[in-house]
Amino acid sequence: MVPFFSAFIYALLYSLGIIGTLNDGFTLLFWEEVLSSGEFVSSFLYSTLVAAVALFISVGGALWTVIKFKKNLDGKFLSFVMYLPLAIPGVVAAFFTRQLFSQGGFFARVSYQLGWIAKPSEFPDVVNDALAIGIILTFVTIVMPFFTLLFLNVYKNERIAELSVLAKSLGANAKQVTLRVCLPILLKKTWVLIALYFIFLLGAYEVPLILGRESPQMLSVLIIRETRQFDLSKISEGYVIAVMYTIVVSVAAIILFLPKRKKVYEN
Amino acid sequence: MKINWKPFVLSILVILAVFPFVYLTLLSLSSGWRFPDVLPSYFGLKNWHTILGSEAGLLKSFFSSLLISLSVAVVSTLSGFALSRTVFYHKQKRLLSLFTYFPYVLAPVVFGACLNYFFLKMGLSGSVFGVIVAQFLIAFPYALIFFSSFWNEKIRHYEDLVATLGGKPLQAFWKVLLPLAKSLLLICFFQTFLISWFEYGLTSIIGLGKVQTLTIKVFLFIKEANFFYGALSCCLLIFPPVVLLYFNKRYVFKNLV
To answer: Does A246 sit within 8 Å of B110, measured CB to CB?
Structure first.
């Protein structure tokens, strides 16, 4: 906790002009400038949206995969293959996306050979694009395999297969079994991890650094850009954003982990 | 006749999972790949030979990464196990465990940017030891959280039983707790090793570009638009975890939920 609070207090003091090169003493000027520029708000909304879309697709895809293919995924070969994407870090995933989807990348070359495009610029730009498609795609490739394996494990541990048979024997149809038995159990047992992953994606750095645009930028990229720039008079504004981001994730951690959660299902 | 589409979808999933490994390996063996060629003009071991030389310093980066990750994994696993007992048997368990989540939920790169001043003052910036200390600060809370499920009533009863039979706390630790936690210690070691092995942001801030781990190298090669060496660095980065995952895949998820 000491390093965390030290880091927070340092950033707070810097943001208030109490410490730092070129700062003269306490001032709220940097806070006013950041709040009036709207850069934090737009970056926060952009990061939230990207993280939410990526997480929704990942969790949705993982749920669909587990519910449809649970029996197949138990096989020795498939169960190992499903673990392979976990060996790919963010920086490699971003590099891979860039290699495949950039305008000079693998798919652009294939499209050219198939006669679909005549020059690289005609290939749809999903790297450094305005809609953050490249970032979302990369997040999904990192996060979805993790949730697939997680849901698969919950499916076994919570005996959802047996509960589904029971529900069917009581007259439920396949749709009711999925919507009223499988999904509620899977989501209730994993919602904390889903929320944690949202926070992780909100603060993701490598992927948006490689695949993102100059503006808007995701939060971590913006904070590092501001705190490490050559214009020393602007560094305090970077720490204002760092303080606000830290408060947001700390409040999220308190909401997630402080209340005593009741055990949903007893063994 | 109803078409069974499951084998088709499963095949696609398998291809998607394996494709990055195949593509990056092939890219690391290539050079001279100009648009619009679908295949490169050269395939061979030329790039891999540079690993043994000093041109790109990749072998050095590989061993730096290995040293940093092994150090972080060993220290955070052992200290996390030893201290988690105090945290999770404490009266203020809920508050203390909440505190362990703070450094864990904060983006490591932002944590690094705010901590950098202290590392500079202590002379730790730009050194391998400094990077190990910085990565320990994020791996250690993970280890604490990881061992939270271990310290339950059943374990406490074992400790009480040892005390009733005349055993000392140290004997309980070495002869009962450690053997019981053996598999968890191994998983935590793997997980913290991977946290460190995959770390980029914090390493770049604290390492000041002087400590060039493999993730730093990948990023440098992307900046230089040297995709072949970039792919080679990626291969060195992703294949060791595949071996680790093969060994611990049976245990990884059992303790997450």
So the answer is: yes
